């Protein structure tokens, strides 16, 4: 049996379509980082927003990971089955008087921001001291400006944010009666014992919100390492929304080599790995000992070629 270190990493895709190249980069980087630390690599399906889920995509994501030699540890967890767990932690924050009901619709807020002629959507606390009698409401946490949140990202360096000025009170429970992304991700990272989160830079400025929540819930703050996101020719993030092509699983060895190039492996190392590996399983596991977080580019985004 494998003896693991204390390191626990994870990959947490949403089943809103097939995996595309951009998400596979995150999967491979987090996998190699975890294995290079002799750690576990866990898989979590972020399927809480059932309206956005696409039938069959969980299966297709797991299949694509397998075909690229990415084997996860322990059981896969599904956020859609964990609503009561999230509610338990929401209630802890209610008891701490950090939560209030909000009945602002997206439309109202957009009008409000338009009138302010602002580009920064900082929630202005409209409902903070209101009695909400509506049956439909979301729950916000007060972003109290007792301290600036700062952390040292293992790739991007020092990041600092003032939640009150830059974000405002944010939603923890949505009016469809499900946990928000922020609450679910923080609870799951804690309960799964994640020690480091390797993910795309599109989430870099969500991190302060998550650290704030961890502090409010007396959770441990994990380490963070945000890798550059890939941009298409129109300078948009490769994603399902920008119609990124799904991966061709038959090219799994080529896909992995391409990713190794993006995460800083030397060309000669990649060539040797390619030649000396029978299949993608071999290739990914032979790549572990060459992984070096410091070789990943300290930029927010790179062009996808
Ligand atoms: Zn409101």
TrEMBL record:
Keyword Aminoacyl-tRNA synthetase: yes
GO cellular component: cytosol
Chain span(s) of sequence motif 'KMSKS' region: 237-241
Record: residues binding Zn(2+): 102, 104, 123, 127
Keyword entries, A-Z: Aminoacyl-tRNA synthetase, ATP-binding, Ligase, Metal-binding, Nucleotide-binding, Protein biosynthesis, Zinc
Gene3D superfamilies: HUPs (3.40.50.620)
Pfam families listed in its UniProt record: tRNA-synt_1c
Essential cofactor(s): Zn(2+)
Alphabetical GO biological process terms: glutamyl-tRNA aminoacylation; tRNA modification
Keyword Mitochondrion included in the entry's annotation: no
One GO MF term: glutamate-tRNA ligase activity
Binding residues annotated for ATP, in chain numbering: 240
Function: Catalyzes the tRNA-independent activation of glutamate in presence of ATP and the subsequent transfer of glutamate onto a tRNA(Asp). Glutamate is transferred on the 2-amino-5-(4,5-dihydroxy-2-cyclopenten-1-yl) moiety of the queuosine in the wobble position of the QUC anticodon.
Annotated protein name in UniProt: Glutamyl-Q tRNA(Asp) synthetase
Organism per entry: Silvanigrella paludirubra
